[in-house]
Description:
Number of helices: 7
CATH architecture of the domain at 53-179: 3-Layer(aba) Sandwich
Shape: globular
Number of strands: 5
CATH class of the domain at 53-179: Alpha Beta
Distance between the termini: 36 Å
Largest sheet: 5 strands, mixed
Amino acid sequence: MVMPSTPYDAKGLLKTAIRDENPVVFFEDKMMYTKLKGRVPTEEYTIPFGVADVKRVGRDITLVATSSMVQVALGAADLLEEAGMSAEVVDPRTLWPLDEKTLIESAKKTSRVIVIDEGYERYGITAEIAAVIAEGAFYNLDAPVKRMGAMHIPIPFSPPLEDATVPTEKSVFEVARKLCGQA
């Protein structure tokens, strides 16, 4: 189960999916088609499944984000840096296999975690990742793992209204400040 967050990752993970002998579910966020540009090398490369990517190293809080929410997490990390806090941003890239080791190591290092996904918080990706981290880093956490996802309403068809229902840089920033005792 693949969820790329950049054009570079999309190409590398798609090449891996094509070569894989097992069925692969490849999720692409439609919002990234028009909003996100990035370098995509012409040479051949693949990205292995089950290997998370630490997009930004930090020390105070871990932001685990999927797909388009990785860009939101990176923006929130910039806001946190301006406020004197350091956020680590981890992109799992694949949900199955899930790189539990990287997620748990990051949580142990920072002791605070927010899991961010565009889908609903309940019964979804954020819940599973939060459970993995809570079980693997329980004694190292200074606060419960926080989940952020879409509001519990039907997602509107209108793009501006749809954007209002999912986490934003500002909302992630505010939750992170509160989790770190800065609000």
